[in-house]
Amino acid sequence: xxxxxxxxxxxxxxxxxxAQDKSITLEERIYVEKFARHNSTISLWLKxxxxxxxxxxxxxxxxxxxxxxxxxxxxxxxxxxxxxxxxIADWFGGAPGWLRRS
Length: 102
What we know:
Elements: H1 5-19, H2 26-38, H3 40-55, H4 63-69, H5 88-91, H6 97-100
Helix pairs in contact: 1-3, 2-3
């Protein structure tokens, strides 16, 4: 899905407010989610912004910084796969559409 410059700037503005834990409207959240479902770059931006909102920006150069810069949600232990309790198919069931297709 190609984006016009105007749409990209609008999406980046909304995502920046999410990262800063500022308020956004439901319509803005739906707008960003719509693009994130179809565009892996926007999905990554959104994951990073949510991580920044929840955990603050990690600038220490450690493993937390690496995880956050890659958009990996490794801070929450409940998001990790546990082979003793989780079924791999169910665990990946919530993946975005662009990932399920691969």
